[in-house]
Amino acid sequence: MEMKQILHNKWLEIDVNAVKSNLEAVKTMLEERTRLMAVLKADAYGHGASNIARLLFQSGVDFFAVSFLYEALELRKAGIRANILIFSPLVDEDQVKEAIKNHLTLTITSSYDSQLIDNISQRLNQKVNVHLKVDTGLGRFGMDTQEIIAVCNSLKENPNIYIEGIYTHMAEAAADDSNYTEGQFAQFMEVCQRLAAAGLKIPVKHCANSAVFLKYPHMHLDAVRIGTLISGQYPAGDFPKTLRLMDPYKFKSQIISLRNRKADTYLGYYRSYRLKAPAQVAVIPVGYNDGLALEIANKPEGIIDLIKKLVKMVLFYFDSPRFSLYIKIRGHSYPVRGKVFMQMSLIEIPLNVNVSVGDEVEIPIRKTLAAKNITKIYMREGAAVKIEDEEGTSYVVEGD
Ligand SMILES: *Cc1c(COP(=O)(O)O)cnc(C)c1O
User: How many structural domains comprise the chain?
Assistant: First the structure.
């Protein structure tokens, strides 16, 4: 394996063709009028933002979005010259200056943001594209109708500011009940109509993330903001699985120690597991510091959710096979035993299975929880590729 020369004992393999194929799948549901904004936040959901941006750009995506300024700057440093929308507000002059100098598209979420951007674009005498954010019921960022109208009126005097877009974000598009989502949408459309009536035509209206995109085609509007689907997954919830998605992501490592152990041998801190039969026990150099066995510890969403979580915990405690963690070696799954260590974990493999030290293993680590510093290898048809070298630098936007 190419990995040998890199001397890492864990790495991510990202399948370039899978990303492209997911993009094509999404495009089949796009109407002509609707632009695709690829969301590359959280390091492109763990796939490596710069390389995914290059890849998508080569496939015709010319609009990206991230949550934070530093994420957008990382893309600019990597030579990405496409449009990049930053979802979250910038909080001081230095941040806004940096953003304007880098031709980033900013979100105005309040009159505070508006004044800051207004002042600095005048001072620098530099143009800036902005999108207005409407809060229709998520309770995160955004303004109500009155504040938006006030903001638009105050920005009228500044020729440097171009209000390119207006958007909102849905709170529960994946839920079975569509009432809240339809309500948010109606509120959003009403704000847009009020603005139009006041003579403000904002060209790019958008409100769809992956879940909205799948379930509510009438909400596609002028642009959709897609992250999860491009990264090869359906959003959490029940969706008709009509798009064929491919997971581009594999977390790999190798066996670094292998010992035969007798029945009743204890494994792990606090003797957290006892072998029921003699077995081979492999050590892999991946632990909770890498994201293994981490869960998102949000408050349960309701009583049903709470019960589900409790049941899962109990079954996990009793080593119920369905709720154990498994890693894959040569196509077969073997359970992780004992408490996961900070940087290591133990795997039970039956005695009759032929494995050796150095064997490659595949580990189920949630992509958005994997540590960011792990080496990423981009693969095409099983071989490592360098996206920059192989595809040239043609991702640069000409003449803007
Ligand atoms: C993360 C995010 C998206 C993308 O959502 P997916 O469900 O991953 O497609 C879109 N819009 C905003 C504001 C987001 O924060």
Answer: 2
